[in-house]
Amino acid sequence: MPPFSALPRIFKLPHFQIFKLYLYMLKKERQAYIIQQINIHNKVLSSDLGLQLDVSEDTVRRDLQELAEEGKLIKVHGGALSKSFHFTLENPTIYSQPEKKSIAYKAIELIKDGMMVVLSGGTTIREMVKALPPDLSATFITVSVPIALELLEHPSSEVIFFGNKLLKNAQMSVGAEVVQRLGEIKADLCFLGTNGIDANYGITDLEWEIIEVKRALIKCANKNVSLAIAEKLNTIQRLQICRPEEIDILITELDPDDPILQPYRQKGMQVL
After folding, report:
1. Of 32, 188, 204, 253, which residue is least crowded by CB atoms under 10 Å?
2. What CATH number does the domain located at 4-81 have?
């Protein structure tokens, strides 16, 4: 047996210090999980995190406050937002940017001259807009402020922004007027930034106002395209936007033959 001096230092600490170190490690694990979830889904709710982590909402709120003070997320009422999802004049750090660029390059192959395309929001769609060929001549309709601003930089395509009440958290237009206007058009394609997608439950999200607009986006297009990094596959949020049968094309960064995508193909989706 090694001498006492060779044992790990933690075993020489008084019991109360060991307990404090244990609590510190638990907090770091919780906060790492919170950051992972917010990177994947762009927004988290304190109530959901409390259930997932089996801690009180007060504990979650303290974690969110600490992470916000460290500049790792944006704390909002009832939860938190990803800093990369929230548009600023500065260039944000984009979570999984190489994967999102890969998805973007696959997506733009679907867009042809003369098309009318509707877009939701999200960092993957922003990467797609940035990658559009400069000579592409199409009409893009969006409810997202960041996406509209990105499209203003495109030299050849037209951009139409459907505005009404702006939901600050998502930085997109919501409300009955937006839903009505979307119902008056017939687009060729709808590209949907995806929060959660499951082969059995379809596309899901967190907020009613966002869901109503995304449902209207889906209904107004001939083909619906879901853009999702692999980490969003097989995840379910609180509220359903559409059934899996309503999704025509699923684009991820994975090889289309990846086994994880097989259930989506079985639902009739074209997988790219």
Report:
1. 32
2. 1.10.10.10
CATH superfamily of 97-271: Translation initiation factor eif-2b; domain 2 (3.40.50.10470)
Smallest CA-to-CA distance from 193 within 155, 153, 163, 150 is with: 150
Q: How does pLDDT run along the chain (272 residues), one tens digit per residue?
A: 333 343 344 444 444 454 444 445 587 888 888 888 887 777 788 888 888 878 888 888 888 888 888 887 788 888 887 776 555 545 567 778 899 999 999 999 999 999 999 999 989 999 999 999 999 999 999 999 999 999 998 999 999 999 888 887 778 899 999 999 999 999 999 999 998 999 999 999 988 999 999 999 999 999 999 999 999 999 998 899 999 999 999 999 999 999 999 999 999 999 99
**Contact at 8 Å (CB) between 50 and 57?**
yes
> Which residue reads 């607009």 in tokens?
213
